[in-house]
Amino acid sequence: MQYGKYARNCIIRDRFIASRIIFAGQRLILLPKKIYYNAAIDFDQKLMQVRFPVGFFNDELTIFPKVGTNGGDVTLNFYGYQFGYGTKIQLLKAGQSPISVADSLLSFPEPFSVQAVFNLRGKAVGI
Asked: Looking at the record's lineage, which domain of life comes first (predicted)?
């Protein structure tokens, strides 16, 4: 990461140990563990977000879950940047017809994510 260019603009006031770090769109989300400085002070977990400039994660796309079955509907979550209404999602495999998602089966829970429900009944394995 280009620490000097971007990290100096990030303000995190409390010291913490990150238990999980998630890149989502142009945000770095830190999920800290509890830290005890001394017995008298108890710092609760806080969700901290750091915004990055537009375009910083343009080439990043994360999909969860990574696997599914071909026995029914499978919900996939796509995390990246600039998802919005009008986004089209297809699963592609050489030699197979594309598997598209109808607009009615797409949802946008957050600006950096799309949730899509694919009908994979009887589809080829390995898409």
From this structure: Bacteria
Give tens-digit pLDDT for 70-110. 888 999 988 877 677 778 888 888 888 888 898 899 988 88
Rounded to whole angstroms, the Cα distance separating 84 from 98 reads: 21
Q: Helix (H, G, I), strand (E, B), or coil: what is residue 19?
A: strand
Express each pLDDT in 25-34 by its tens digit.
445 555 444 4
Please state, rounded to an integer, the average pLDDT across all residues of the chain: 66
Dist. CA 118–CA 109, nearest whole Å: 17
Q: Which residues contact 110 (CB under 8 A, 6 or more apart)?
A: 24, 25
Residue with tokens 């499978």: 74
Contacts of 119 (CB under 8 A, 6+ apart): 72, 73, 99
- Number of Cβ within 10 Å of residue 85's Cβ equals 7
